[in-house]
Amino acid sequence: MSSREQVLDSRARIPEHVTYRAFEAETMLLNLDTGTYHGLNRTGARLLELLRETDGDVRQSVARLAEEYNRDPGEVADDCAELCGELAERGLLELSPR
Questions:
Q1: DSSP state of 39
Q2: In what order do the strands lie in the sheet with 27-31?
């Protein structure tokens, strides 16, 4: 999944081989198969929560995040698409077409 629009038009889910834990300042995701992990700040962690709430709808989650943080939707979409793409490359998130 490479393009911004492909990522935004996807459904995202955390695979069963990935676990995560929220701490006060960050959330850690760990791929149990590879040992790969990634730390998320509070905004990234909120994106994960929104993905769960929207049944993985990336575009809807991004819109809600932009609204909650009162940020430019295009800027939030760019950042979230990049993050989702990175997590998918590391096997920490699965993206599939809606």
A1: E
A2: 18-22, 27-31, 37-40
The mean pLDDT of the chain is 94
Q: Give the containing element (helix H, strand E) for 6.
A: helix 4-8
Radius of gyration of the chain (CA): 12
Whose tokens are 């040992």? That residue is 35
Task: Report the topology of domain 4-97.
Answer: Outer Surface Protein A; domain 3 (3.90.930)
Measured distance CA(82)–CA(24) in Å, rounded: 24
CA-nearest of 87, 83, 86, 80 to 64 is 80
| pTM of the model as a whole | 0.91
